[in-house]
Amino acid sequence: LPIDFIRCFCPEGGTVLDPFVGSGTTLIAAVNNNRDCLGIDISKEYCELSEKRLKLEYQKINDFF
What is the pTM of this model? Predict the structure, then answer.
């Protein structure tokens, strides 16, 4: 679901803001679609989870190139 909104409303190279980051799915969609991203959450656990998922995603992208 977030991929369509990201592609439609955020230009490539733009920044996606997710004020309820949760597990980071929107941020990962942003990274995979050449957008910068910023996630915010009140829960420390969710912030840590999304950070871990983003690091794994960036690693996969860097390993690919």
Answer: 0.83
